[in-house]
Design goal:
The complex is a heterodimer of chains A (223) and B (205). Chain A has 223 residues and is an all-alpha fold. Chain A contains nine helices and no strands. Classes of the chains: A mainly alpha (223), B alpha/beta (205). Chains A and B meet through helix 1 and helix 5 of A and helix 3 and helix 4 of B.
């Protein structure tokens, strides 16, 4: 079973390496959205520091949303997805492999670029650390939840818009606690453990249910 | 043995077929014939589990295939209208992925041999997007050579193939039937079989 998981993971990573633009667009989208805010609201230090957690998280939400459509679409169009449904391997393992690859390609770059964004918003070193950690736990949740929506809207006309309507509301808890953690880190002496415990709880919950729900949704969509 | 009992399928409000019964023994081939839109592809997709029937049962050795699920999909290879290969991967990589997913232990050498037999010598290391339509089909068909599944379900396998490749595929199919395999296919070409049993099914008559 691990062999299957690794096979799908490597396949998707290889494909992405041969088509690098797809990966870079998500990252640049994130950077551009985040950079637009200082231009719009002004460069005053306090204001920027105040809005940073929300801006970064909303931009991360939108960036991961943007990448979701591609998660299953190309496999669906060239028929490799239906071949996956017909393999004797558990579909949820294949799906999990795809989600992990997707996160490595679209979620992880956001985590790594976060310090740069933090500097742009005059965040303290501690806040930047908290932001990276929160993104590290939070972005996999976005990929996991998003996969369900991507599977449900597969092959629909205008599926992209429907996908955002379906999935963005489900991202709210991650947004609230993710940006909450960053905001709280700016106040000295505040306890961050509760935020991280909740984010980890979301992550574990999504990890258990999402591959299974995505697999079920894919079976319906392919029919 | 594959048994189809009282099968009915529809797409939207349109009934494609109802009360379909047939069975397929080891070492036999079934031609599914019918005009366009008579439900050939739907029947094939229903048998391999990509489409849900309205009524009826599909049984493999007496057991319902929905309950067998992964035990049954291990026995089936399906080749549809889509080749099911990634255009950014080479023929070799495509087959490596599909054999791992099919759960077959296949060495890289065997994959090279299969591609060579399909007439793709010299093209193994090229991304399949630079191959012609017929060559892509050959990559997809090479899966048949690397598989130990019993039941082959082939939807128009001869499209885009040249005369030599059609002959080759016919001999591959005949070989599989002789070795006790089963084949269900839709096509407009007759396959010359030397042994084994040939059945015909007319849809939409």
């Amino acid at each position: 079973m691990f062999k299957t998981f690794r096979c799908i993971l490597m396949r998707d990573l290889t494909l992405a390496m041969r088509r690098r633009t797809d990966v870079l667009t998500t990252l640049f989208f994130f950077i551009i959205v985040v950079s637009l805010f200082p231009l719009g609201v002004g460069t005053e230090k306090e204001t920027l520091r105040h809005i940073a957690p929300g801006v970064v998280w909303v931009a991360a939400l939108l960036a991961s949303m943007l990448a979701l459509e591609r998660l299953f679409a190309s496999d669906y169009l060239d028929g490799t997805l239906e071949q996956m449904l017909l393999t004797p391997q558990p579909l949820s393992v294949l799906v999990l492999g795809k989600i992990v690859a997707h996160w490595l390609l679209t979620g992880l770059p956001l985590v790594l670029i976060a310090p740069l964004v933090g500097l742009q918003y005059h965040l303290s070193g501690e806040s930047i650390g908290v932001m990276m950690l929160a993104l590290l736990i939070g972005t996999p949740v976005l990929s996991l939840i998003g996969a369900i929506g991507a599977a449900l809207t597969l092959g629909l006309r205008g599926g992209g818009v429907l996908l955002s309507l379906l999935i963005l509301p489900l991202y709210i808890p991650v947004l609230v606690y993710g940006s909450g953690a960053v905001a709280a880190s700016a106040v000295t002496g505040s306890d961050l453990q509760a935020y991280f415990s909740l984010l980890i709880a979301f992550f574990l919950l999504a990890l258990v249910f999402s591959p299974w729900a995505t697999a079920a949704a894919l079976r319906i969509s392919v029919e | 043995m594959l048994e189809i009992v009282n099968l009915a399928c529809s797409r939207g409000d349109r009934h494609l077929f109802t009360g379909l019964n047939f069975s397929l023994d080891t070492g036999s081939l079934l031609y599914v014939q019918g005009r366009n839109g008579s439900g050939k592809t739907t029947l094939l997709r229903t048998i391999c589990g990509l489409f849900l029937q309205d009524e009826g049962d599909i049984r493999w050795n007496g057991e319902n295939v929905r309950e067998l699920s992964e035990e049954f999909t291990k026995e089936v290879v399906y080749l549809g209208h889509l080749n099911g290969i990634k255009s950014d991967l080479t023929g070799l990589e495509n087959l490596q992925v599909s054999t791992v997913l099919d759960g077959d232990e296949v060495s890289e050498e065997q994959i090279w041999d299969a591609l060579k037999r399909m007439g793709l010598a010299g093209f193994e290391d090229l991304p399949t997007k630079v191959l012609s339509q017929g060559q892509k089909r050959r990559v997809a068909l090479a899966r048949l050579l690397l598989n130990d599944s019993k039941l082959w379900i082939l939807d128009e396998p001869f499209t885009a193939l040249d005369v030599a490749a059609v002959d080759l595929l016919q001999s591959v199919i005949a070989e599989h039937v002789e070795n006790g395999g089963m084949v269900i296919l839709t096509t407009h070409q007759e396959v010359a079989l030397t042994s084994g049993q040939i059945q015909q099914l007319q849809l939409g008559a």
